[in-house]
Design a protein that fits this description.
heterodimer; A: 314 residues; alpha/beta; five-stranded parallel beta sheet; 26% helix; B: 254 residues; two-stranded antiparallel ribbon; globular; binds flavin-adenine dinucleotide
Chain lengths: 314, 254
Amino acid sequence: MAVLVIAEHDNTSVKDSTNKVVTAAKAMGGDVDVLVAGANASAAAAAAAKIDGVRKVLHADGATLAKQMAEPLEALIVPLMANYDAVLFPATTTGKNAAPRVAAKLDVMQVSGVIGVEGADTFVRPIYAGNAIITVQDTQAKKVITVQATAFKAAGNGGSAAVETTAAPSGPFKAAFVSEEMAKSDRPELTAAKRVVSGGRALGSSEEFHKVLDPLADKLGAAVGASRAAVDAGYAPNDYQVGQTGKVVAPELYVAVGISGAIQHLAGMKDSKVIVAINKDEDAPIFQVADYGLVADYKTAIPELMDELGKAGV
Amino acid sequence: MKVLVPVKRVLDYNLKVRVKPDGSGVDLSNLKMSINPFCEIAIEEAVRMKEGGGGHAKDAATEVIAVSIGPEQAQETLRNALAIGADRGILVKAEGEVEPLAVAKLLKAVIDAEKPDLVILGKQAIDDDNNATAQMLAALLDWPQATFASKIVLGAGKASVTREVDGGLQTIDVELPAIISTDLRLNEPRYASLPNIMKAKKKPIDVKTPADLGVDVAPRLKTIKTAEPGKRQAGIKVKSAAELVGKLKEAGVI
Ligand SMILES: Cc1cc2nc3c(=O)[nH]c(=O)nc-3n(C[C@H](O)[C@H](O)[C@H](O)COP(=O)(O)OP(=O)(O)OC[C@H]3O[C@@H](n4cnc5c(N)ncnc54)[C@H](O)[C@@H]3O)c2cc1C
Ligand SMILES: Cc1cc2nc3c(=O)[nH]c(=O)nc-3n(C[C@H](O)[C@H](O)[C@H](O)COP(=O)(O)OP(=O)(O)OC[C@H]3O[C@@H](n4cnc5c(N)ncnc54)[C@H](O)[C@@H]3O)c2cc1C
């Protein structure tokens, strides 16, 4: 059995989610290789070679792969699958965009958003916003899987696999990158952060959202998230959305401020280790999943919390 | 330009699904079913392309066709799409589980016959949460794809699409014909008016079967168990920020 893991990377470094997907791949048994597809991505390929338990790294480099768009990834990965029994993608927007294309070309049904691996062909995944958990058996000759990385422990970085180059697809492709607006932040990335502070509709405006939550996040070294309502209203950018249709996070500490706790939101954060909810409505559903609930107006509670954290030396 | 929109009948998003006690699946009996919210956004966008709204020129779309794959009752979902403004519907009648790969193959067969210039799907169905059908369909057709769209600008023989990606927003150009999948912020679907609901009843719905389209819909994956998610331990209410900080220290998370 040979498994190919598609690395999440930014051409210079490999994201922690790649190490987590390697752990999922190892649970299937067999050899694990990692594909780094990018442009000028030698540094990322070298980083991937350090992941524990990796047999070898395939490095495809070329302009067509600069933005890791679905069409070139399909053209690259489908032929490589002659040598593999399974391919695992992190369930990021890049992975979710490309994996089904590869699956369809191989005529296989993919297993999406896996949170558990019970052997070479048995996987656990949530459906209905996490309100049901199914165990699926995939006996297809080739398997295409997207992995919810937060559900797995990261493999270490003590390895030294060989890096092999493989040709990038030449194109042309019928989709072309035009531009991007990426949020710049010194804070940790939402899905990898150990602590997350999220705000909801209660915050009322973009200024208020940042005025209240940014200092708290800075104090805690936390990433900032948001409910859909806060994103729809323009208080926070789209990539902050936590939930069924946003990002799934599982930090050690999740602080929900003025978020009611709709099932779609809970789907994205209920596997956090410790959940704190601050909400002025004592019946808000968020309290049903919160370890520590504070029934209070955030306007007074957050300044008090900042003070108390300061006193506690945080 | 002809626009085709696949729409799926799913459990209403306000409802919480129940897992059957014997672990054989989820119990949807007597629960309200609705159009998948992302599909509703897809129909709304296609209709705006016809009416001239949301930045689209009037008559950018000349015909909007809604397609659903599902049981007889998926007709209601199609009527819903017709009430928003689609012109006609196609129901591919299939009972039981139809996986995205099979859905994509059925849609490809419909598209081969209808030859639309643009297909708009939801990015994910809120029941099975696969987020796969649009991309699979694009691969089967060898068309370009623009998934998770929050803005669509139609141009000559192409569409510029802004996509919601992990780090922010990305804009790409896709040559038509193309596949687009919708994200939440593409538009806010209208409430269908009563006259439009009445009008929708008279719009045609063509019924087909997977056999008519020559597609094998047998599932590839086998669900061996369906379980309730692990329940979190009920927590406690703290009285003050000071008590909260104390608890967080005890828990070792700060
Ligand atoms: C298809 C679909 C997909 C969705 N996907 C997601 C998703 O991925 N993520 C997501 O989050 N949602 C998602 N939703 C939306 C979800 O259903 C809820 O509408 C949303 O989560 C509500 O956001 P909220 O809790 O911020 O707002 P509300 O539900 O309005 O809650 C605001 C809360 O703030 C409290 N409050 C008000 N003022 C104060 C104050 N001064 N101090 C303290 N508390 C205060 C209120 O008591 C209330 O509980 C989705 C919905 C649909 C239909
Ligand atoms: C245990 C289990 C039992 C199930 N039982 C049944 C059942 O009895 N009956 C049943 O109908 N389904 C059943 N399903 C669901 C069925 O498997 C899903 O419909 C299928 O897997 C599609 O996946 P998705 O909805 O996640 O697709 P996604 O890829 O998330 O959907 C994306 C988009 O594709 C389009 N699309 C997807 N499906 C359709 C469709 N059918 N028609 C038109 N457009 C579509 C829509 O535009 C949608 O927004 C069951 C699933 C499971 C796990």
